[in-house]
Amino acid sequence: MKPDASIAHTRTRIKICGLTREHDVDAAVAAGADAVGFVMYAGSPRCVTPQRAAELARRLPPFVTPVLLFVNESATNIIAACAQLAQACVQFHGDESPAQCLEATGHGARPFMRAARIPLDGATPFDLVKFAADYAIAQGILLDAHVEGYGGSGKTFNWSLLPPSVNAHLVLSGGLTPANVTDGIVQVRPRCKTLAVDVSSGVEVSAPGGGTRKGIKDPEKINQFVAAVRAADALLARPTHALLSTT
Predict the structure, then answer these.
(1) How far apart are CA 191 and CA 7, in angstroms?
(2) Active site annotation includes 144
(3) Which of 22, 59, 75, 4 is nearest to 242 (CA)?
(4) Cα(141)–Cα(171) distance, rounded to whole angstroms?
(5) What is the CATH number of the domain that holds 209?
(6) Residues 24, 89, 101, 144: which is the catalytic one?
(7) Within 13 A of 31's CA, how many CA atoms are on the CB side?
């Protein structure tokens, strides 16, 4: 695979998702996040109300974008929620059609991302190139693993099985952690126009007995995650890495 030189020197954008507390919003901003996500899906343990999201978003400085995540929500409710966060981007994480995305965002007047649910088994067909073309008006296509339920899987799919070239801005998600995000960026960035990363459970406080405390972020893990992303950017910027990638 031959990486595009313009891509190789692009800074990877970072979104910290599933925020529920002021402390965590502040930690994400201090670490250098470009966007923070608020879950509007009632089926998620990280769900907050639009009013709470607006309250948390008021802590954001300029140029840090709030993102509202919806799953199969009505256009009326999405528009009402967005009215409380004028600067928010929308993330569609269910089965929304292109027409439904357009209706809920004023025919694209409000920027939005569309989640693509990538099969975990590597054998189930999924045409990401066609999916990206169908949602061409989206600001980005977010890649998450396809599992039962909605709202973020916390699972990692096989990045190497993605198409070699996708004409879209991609957002890599699903099971990212400070330990694996560098490798994910190195594998996926050469396949798309630009790349961002989205993390939630990978930067949460560990729960007794395993798992994480849903919606409770760990500032140290956030800092480690951001450092790992910057390490990937530095690696891809090295001429020696570009040379090895083309051979």
Answers:
(1) 9
(2) yes
(3) 4
(4) 6
(5) 3.20.20.70
(6) 144
(7) 28
